[in-house]
Amino acid sequence: MEYSHIAPQFRSVMELSDLERIKFMEEARWVDYPAGNKLLDLLNGLLLKPPRPRMPNVLVVGASNSGKTTVIHRFKKLCGAPYISDDGVSVRPVVYAEIHKPDERELYNAILDNFWAPHNPAAPLAKLRHQAIHLIREARTRMLIIDEIHTVNNGSPTKKADVMNELKMLANILQIPLVLVGTRVALQLLRLDPQYSSRFEVLSLPNWEVNPDFQRFLKSFESVLPLKKPSKLFSPDLATLIHAISEGITGNVEYLLQECAKEAIQTGSELIDRRLLEKNQWMRPTNGSRERIL
Length: 294
Known about the structure:
Oligomer: single chain
Order of helices and strands: HHEHEEEHHEHEHHEHHHH
């Protein structure tokens, strides 16, 4: 069987066992889509900016599970992979760190953890800051990405301002672009001080609408699902149902289709149809969570 609905580079997967096909499906895999590709292009343009006293910075926002972090990791893989320079320096073009509470030490500990650098998490802030800045400069880093920035909003007004001022200072000292990533709650941080809003351009990763772009995304996504029969997820009927269940959020679409494909393999139906999608409407987010009745 030719499996013309599967991307050519993945057709050999169709000869694997059911368990192996499910394992393949659960591996991280990039699927092109317009908003994601546009964000990749914008970040790449930012990375190529020559140093200057006030570098452009961006805040990337979107709904929870909208694919923000997936795009960031794709960018790191394509443009930020470490390498050894001609003069023997271990270069890290992009440094990525996640923070989970509104605290300056959390910021620097996350950066130092990314370098696998020995450090004392409880050390004085000045020492952590000095060590992080030294490593970033030594690695000739050209972009600093801070993910989950919306968690800073959990702090008091003073703690929020402290973290944002620390980030502003880092951008000034290092003269590299700063990319903050978070949910739309993070927009509140830019309203704390006019200086913050003037320093950051906001890039929004939107939810899908039921349109040709969404249908093309579903067709591309179907081409990496190792099902033996074509599902035609891009058809208007199925596309509308998938959008309703997922609320147009990229991560929810992926989770829904992977779970349905897994069941299709296990039951032997080998395709995702309306019945299977309707059966899995429990995946529709409710107050940010999913509940499966067992």
